[in-house]
């Protein structure tokens, strides 16, 4: 069964600290993996999209890594800011030409405290 | 661009009533998606359209749910009759499908539906 598991479910860190969020998936065959940031009361916003051949991709203080062999991805946040408080959702897309073939993780809720 | 526009932002209704949610995708985008988000189940894809045509509605929970896209700039998601378990945040997203390129979906602000 195609699944996306994220850990931890929630995380509290102090402003300025780094953190890493994990995403493990069983989706096969695999097309791409996305990380979204969702602020409370808002829709998700795309942070990164990684295809099979990409190992790492950065977007400012956000760096995503992908190991397609072990089916693991991580999202590293450097020098966290209060505005990083949000839910981070990992989404894996299978192949087959269907845009609807998306498997969503339940997200990691990050709280950054002053 | 104003982004994806959804209305209403909040809807409170009684069980058994008809509910219609509306979405205006980003101009020029040719794919539109309807999602439902709950604490228990996270984000779930309900249905998506390519060029106004429904492609995959396997995520629609039951016959009480229906979606239409009469033109490239408007879509509706209707629930009739509504039930308390339909309470959730409903998101609409759009994307521009470009062959060979991983597409990014742009989400609207969502409609928070409460069915009493």
Distance between the termini of chain B: 36 Å
Strand residue percentage of chain B: over 45%
Q: Largest inter-chain interface?
A: A-B, 22 and 27 residues
Radius of gyration of chain B: 14 Å
Average pLDDT confidence of chain A is 91
Task: Set down the secondary structure blueprint.
The complex is a heterodimer of chains A (114) and B (116).
Chain A: E1 4-7, E2 10-14, E3 19-25, E4 30-38, E5 45-51, E6 56-59, E7 62-67, E8 72-77, E9 86-94, E10 102-104, E11 108-113
Parallel strand pairs in A: 2-11
Antiparallel strand pairs in A: 1-3, 3-8, 4-5, 4-9, 6-7, 7-8, 9-10, 9-11
Chain B: E1 5-7, E2 10-13, E3 19-24, E4 31-38, E5 42-50, E6 53-56, E7 65-71, E8 74-79, E9 88-95, E10 106-107, E11 111-115
Parallel strand pairs in B: 2-11
Antiparallel strand pairs in B: 1-3, 3-8, 4-5, 4-9, 5-6, 7-8, 9-10, 9-11
3D structure, described in words:
The complex is a heterodimer of chains A (114) and B (116). Chain A is built from no helices and eleven strands. With 114 residues, chain A is mainly beta. In chain A, strands 2, 4, 5, 9, 10 and 11 form a six-stranded mixed sheet that branches. A five-stranded antiparallel sheet of chain A has the order 1-3-8-7-6, with no helix packed on it. In chain A, a hairpin with a 2-residue loop joins strand 6 (56-59) and strand 7 (62-67). The model of chain A has no long low-confidence stretch (mean pLDDT 91). Chain B is mostly beta strands and 116 residues long. Chain B is built from no helices and eleven strands.
